[in-house]
Design goal:
Structural class of chain A: alpha+beta
Order of helices and strands of chain A: HHHEEEEHEEHHEHEEE
Helix content of chain A: 25-40%
Strand content of chain A: 25-35%
CATH architecture of the largest domain in chain A: 3-Layer(aba) Sandwich
Strand order of the largest sheet of chain A: 4-5-6-9-8-7
Oligomer: homodimer
CATH class of the largest domain in chain A: Alpha Beta
Number of strands of chain A: 10
Number of domains of chain A: 2
Largest interface: A-B, 21 and 21 residues
Distance between the termini of chain A: 40 Å
CATH superfamily of the largest domain in chain A: Chorismate lyase-like
Shape of chain A: elongated
CATH topology of the largest domain in chain A: Chorismate lyase
Radius of gyration of chain A: 21 Å
Chain lengths: 241, 241
DNA sequence: CAGTGGTCTAGACCACTTT
DNA sequence: AAGTGGTCTAGACCACTGA
């Protein structure tokens, strides 16, 4: 293989395969060609291909299973990937909260949303407000903002109470959006009026504020999420993962 | 090489090298034997050895430099490793605070310290209280607890105001303590009296609380750190790294 | 059983650093 | 120039999966 490109071969191969996944040539859940076959097609040795695949696996873009094959990653649930903090109980077990979607609207991005998501002023976004409920008690108030251009038709099937976030994950898989990185910012704030209503806490209660922007394998900002956590009870531990 | 051990060879090799670093056979900053030499000594191929070295490098236990050699990792400053959150200003630049050590005492571990650090009841610990100062304003109040057994003679040169934490890093390197992992717990609390005095904020101000236990390459709990961050100003972003 | 990914080896050559 | 780690190849064999 001629190499005017200065990057190592395995890096180039990784980029090629990354592109196939991101562009949708290879769909979520699809099985890749066997290693010798792929190596022949790309004109590299098996070892070089394997090194590229290892990189993709480390970034959770593919899943390799001995004896079965290599698959494009599927993000079937929120805890698989794209969830960057986790709540555990004091025994150390992960706790899965219920989710209640309280609003789902589409409109032009605010100034802050546009800046964080790198959108042009006035571009449309979908906004999802939801609360997350632990043992019957709402502990997290959350707003998710998505660029409408990346999730076409997203807001049409409006039935927030029932659907939870399944459609969101579905759209992500359909549109080649595979989350690989997020920028996070932490702080503590006092609960204001709307938060206190959702979380059932007094105004002024200290809340853990997590502001997160998430990027996909193509480098696009695909989600902005602002979470307010009521950690009063100290029955749970919040960790960043 | 005979293999009653079920683990892959490269995993075994990695464990052997890990042990040499942890036990102090290879000191911090020391250069390792060249790859062909090491491979011959261990009776494995160069490829297998390189795979083991890659694992150690991923865990930051060694540093490889093309043309020069492979070195045991050196944790010369706190930001190198062993610091698990980072403060940035709004331009995204990392901000390095000043450090003021306010107390340095040695005594028996509290119940909580013993539990977190996995110590027997009554074992001695060193306790360091310090505040971290950004642009002249104290923003973090922090207590570091170290098992005295791992840091012998640590408290002897008592000059808290001047020394900062250099001695601590020095001791870590000397005693084969290389930090590789930490458990973290996040929450928000209201500032109590002592915090408000250190941080110069009103009682009740929301503070970001980070409780962290750090482990070294040998799996020992080597540090417990409780940090209270005043994020009021919102001139900084806190991220977990 | 055939087909897959996982391990391990041996050797050639390249790129970087220091003497 | 000599020595180091980095890349790339080719091929043998092992371990797992599913028909």
């Amino acid at each position: 293989m001629r190499r005017p490109d200065a990057r190592p071969l395995y890096v180039q191969v990784e980029a090629i395969l990354n592109e196939r996944i991101v562009s949708g040539s290879w769909r979520s859940g699809q099985v890749l060609p066997a290693e010798p076959e792929l190596a022949a097609e790309l004109g590299v040795s098996a070892g070089t291909l394997r090194r590229a695949l290892a990189g993709l696996e480390r970034r959770h873009l593919i899943q390799r299973r001995q004896g079965r094959g290599t698959y494009v990653a599927q993000q079937t649930s929120e805890q698989a990937l794209g969830q960057f903090f986790r709540v555990r109980n004091l025994a150390g077990q992960p706790v899965e909260p219920e989710t209640l979607v309280t609003a789902l609207v589409t409109g032009p991005a605010t100034e802050e949303e546009a800046a964080r998501l790198r959108l042009a002023p006035g571009e449309e976004v979908h906004r999802i407000d939801r609360s997350r409920i632990f043992e019957g008690e709402p502990r997290i108030a959350e707003r998710i903002t998505l660029p409408a251009a990346l999730f076409p038709g997203f807001s049409l099937p409006l039935a927030p109470e029932q659907l939870g976030m399944e459609i969101y994950v579905y759209y992500r898989n359909r549109h080649g959006i595979i989350v690989v990185r997020s920028d996070e910012k932490l702080s503590a704030i006092a609960a204001a009026e709307p938060d206190s209503a959702v979380l059932g806490c007094a105004i002024g209660t200290p809340l853990l504020l997590i502001e997160r922007v998430t990027f996909d394998a193509a480098g696009r900002a695909v989600e902005m999420r602002v979470s307010r956590l009521d950690t009063r009870a100290h029955r749970y531990a919040v960790e960043i993962v």
